[in-house]
């Protein structure tokens, strides 16, 4: 504190200014609350499994399960009834369908498309977000095609386009590319428009960092054990803020409707800066490792689970998020409902 700041604080205090006056009661705190959290802010990710009446626990994500489509429909109804506006679907592709070239991604009858069609039919009034990236479909677990050790860019984008058109045809309302290849937003927009999907929303995972916090997700979709190396030649370096902003700017120039920052909590500085700088809807993904952190710490008795859950989600809103992809979506929505 500089000398003059201290002097001003002393003067303010003498003049009768007390910050705690406002905080005395619940109602006075409520009157000055600056942000809020509603079920409209929450997006529920769902892991889809083949078969019927199937559910599988995910050891690294306590409380989250992979669900067959019939069970996912029941959860979709519950989410809708709680006021959650959208689901983000992730397929746990059958192992024998994972190949070097990820061709299952554009099979019109793949698990993802089956889920999109069935949920759209059963619960038409909830938005469906389809993740675009090849990692659930490749034998090497990378988001793009490989040539030796290299992740190919333009060749990957060509396949991602086929994947996205396949998802749009199956009923995806929002296409969310999470692959971080260059040029994919513009290419996807052009391809979607050419095929008559000009109303499909593009939500770009624009600032996606190469993160250790994706670990449990990779277990959930079965890509983790396969993954050779890391994703640092396409995902962002956690040291870099300016590069993240350039990624966002580029995707907006290529006609992304909305942008996403990922992971969430460790990157809320990026969320705020994107919001202030570009004034577009910004979403953030509270990723699997962030969820696991809270769940495991709570299970060990280290913190109050619901308190930590709500506080973490409020932080996203305070940072400027329009919405949060979170595995807590159902529980948080219930808590908000009281
Ligand atoms: C894959 C993808 C990942 C996540 C969403 N889509 C993982 C990765 O890039 O390796 C992570 C979500 C989470 O951790 O909850 N394209």
TrEMBL record:
Amino acids binding Mg(2+): 247
Signal peptide interval: none
Enzyme class: lyase
GO cellular component, one term: cytosol
Active-site residue list: 208, 262
Keywords: Heme biosynthesis, Lyase, Magnesium, Metal-binding, Porphyrin biosynthesis
Sample GO molecular function, one term: zinc ion binding
Catalytic activity, as annotated: 2 5-aminolevulinate = porphobilinogen + 2 H2O + H(+)
Pfam families on file: ALAD
GO biological process: protoporphyrinogen IX biosynthetic process
UniProt superkingdom: Bacteria
InterPro entries found in the cross-reference section: ALAD, Aldolase_TIM
Similarity comment: Belongs to the ALAD family.
Listed name of the protein: Delta-aminolevulinic acid dehydratase
Organism the protein comes from: Maritalea mobilis
